[in-house]
């Protein structure tokens, strides 16, 4: 695959995955990894996730394999799960933002797998958007943000899941969920019954520095509402949710389920911005399954922090 050639030459390639589009570089090429931060305008203390095509590559990245990690990997790789482990000394500090751990994920998306296999090396890949903007779930979104800033963009379908991977810290005794995603805590607890969410107050400083940044936010103001809530100026606003609102909105996404809502959220944010809509009302969802991840992204987009 030609795109893999760019990776071998130290370039940057955007590629589709089942969660969101990623912006890839060879993890063992420090200059290439540094270019990822520059292209996105990403703060240097926000760690990247290493993407692999084969479980055999884990030993190139992780110093030791904990039992919790082995069980999660067995259950959920390939898929929308990132496992954080103590890193090998050979993994450049720029990739892990100076942490002694590295996040590892094996995407299930067909194009991603073919691309990563052709690269023949683990590929660091944050979301392929400008830092601070909604994550890219369509090729169009990648193009809007990064055209002219990177070497190659692989066009794929819209991301099936639409929210970033679940991140679980497996470097210590007890597995801790740092970021909720499509692999829900209910699913994780079937494998590791004592898995917990990280305490948000501690999360920001020590474990997952990236979570402190403003994320996922469109230019429009995001407001979380309950089903049926009456809002001002609906005719100039956007609305996304599973319910049918009683008002007429300028732009509306009627979602079939929480999964469908998750898959459409970030592209809806972008579409509202393209049309100059100033306020987006997002219907709240039940905090279960993917609903937790969806609520996490909605709260961040709305500027609500737990800590
Ligand atoms: P993104 O690539 O934009 O989806 O962001 C990756 C996110 O995963 C970071 O912002 C962190 O929240 C989390 N993450 C990645 N690597 C680590 C790590 N080694 N330790 C803790 N959290 C991590
Ligand atoms: Mg991101």
- Helical content stands at 25-40%
Order of helices and strands: HEEHEHHEEHEHEEEHEHEEEHEH
Q: Distance between the terminal alpha carbons, to the nearest Å?
A: 45 Å
Q: How do the strands line up in the largest sheet?
A: 7-1-2-6-3-5-4-8-9-10
* Strands, count: 14
Please tell me how large the radius of gyration is: 19 Å
Q: By helix and strand content, what is the structural category?
A: alpha/beta
What bound compounds does this protein have?
A: adenosine monophosphate, magnesium ion
Could you give a short account of the major beta sheet? 10 strands, mixed
Q: Which quaternary structure do these chains form?
A: single chain
Report the mean per-residue pLDDT as an integer: 95
Q: Which stretches are poorly predicted, pLDDT < 50 over at least 5 residues?
A: none
Give the overall silhouette.
Answer: globular
How many DSSP H or I helices? 10
β-strand amount: 15-25%
Could you characterize what this model shows?
There is one protein chain. With 307 residues, the protein is an alpha/beta fold. 31% of the residues lie in helices and 18% in strands. A 10-stranded mixed β-sheet has the order 7-1-2-6-3-5-4-8-9-10, sandwiched between helices. A 4-stranded parallel β-sheet has the order 11-14-12-13, covered by helices on one side. Helix 1 (2-8) crosses helix 5 (110-119) and helix 9 (258-274) packs parallel to helix 10. Adenosine monophosphate (AMP) is lined by residues 46-49, 84, 96, 99, 101-103, 126-127, 164, 167, 178-179, 207-208, 210-211.
């Amino acid at each position: 695959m030609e795109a893999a050639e760019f990776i071998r030459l130290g370039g940057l390639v955007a590629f589709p995955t089942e969660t969101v589009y990623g912006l890839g570089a060879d993890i063992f090429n420090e200059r290439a990894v540094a270019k990822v931060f520059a292209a996105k305008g990403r703060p240097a203390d926000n760690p990247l996730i290493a993407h692999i095509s084969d479980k055999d590559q884990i030993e190139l990245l992780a110093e030791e394999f904990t039992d919790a990690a082995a069980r999660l990997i067995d259950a959920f790789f390939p898929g929308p799960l990132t496992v954080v482990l103590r890193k090998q000394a050979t993994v450049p500090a720029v990739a892990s933002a100076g942490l002694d751990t590295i996040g590892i994920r094996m995407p299930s998306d067909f194009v991603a797998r073919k691309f990563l296999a052709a690269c023949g090396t683990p590929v660091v890949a944050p979301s392929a958007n400008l830092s601070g903007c909604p994550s890219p779930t369509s090729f169009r979104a990648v193009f809007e943000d990064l055209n002219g800033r990177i070497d190659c963009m692989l066009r794929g379908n819209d991301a099936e899941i639409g929210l970033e991977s679940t991140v679980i810290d497996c470097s210590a005794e007890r597995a801790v969920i740092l970021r909720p995603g499509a692999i829900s805590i209910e699913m994780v607890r079937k494998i590791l019954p004592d898995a917990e969410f990280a305490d948000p107050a501690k999360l920001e400083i020590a474990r997952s520095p990236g979570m402190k940044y403003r994320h996922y936010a469109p230019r429009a103001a995001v407001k979380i509402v309950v089903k049926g809530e009456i809002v001002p100026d609906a005719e100039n606003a956007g609305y996304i949710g599973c319910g049918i609102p009683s008002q007429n909105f300028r732009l509306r996404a009627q979602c079939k389920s929480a999964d469908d809502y998750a898959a459409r959220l970030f592209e809806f944010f972008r579409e509202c911005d393209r049309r100059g809509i100033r306020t987006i009302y997002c219907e709240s969802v039940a905090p279960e399954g993917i609903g937790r991840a969806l609520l996490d992204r909605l709260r961040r987009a709305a500027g609500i922090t737990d800590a």
